[in-house]
Write a structure and sequence with these properties.
This protein is mainly alpha-helical. It is built from 3 helices and no strands. The radius of gyration is 21 Å and the shape is elongated. 19% of the residues are buried.
Amino acid sequence: MAHRRAVSKASDSVAAAAVAEAHRREWGYILAATVRITRDLDLAEEAVQDAYARALQHWTEAGVPDHPGAWLTTVARRIALDAMRRDAAPAATPHCRWKPESR
């Protein structure tokens, strides 16, 4: 069990280093690609931040992808699109319970 935890810690540090490096190199490109889709800087920034958080978790478990910037761009864009779809969908409302007035 101790060996397995040691591997996990090494994997955590590798993933953290990869996320930090991707942040330094790719943040602007990923943000720009996401803004092009959303036309909303705030939404794009939130999506990119969420993508980096997901990368830290996913890369720890699955390993760092060959092209971290592409992975992050894809995830950020999908997060943004999901948010835009969610915001555009009509709110779930109960069925109409209208009753005609009785006279």
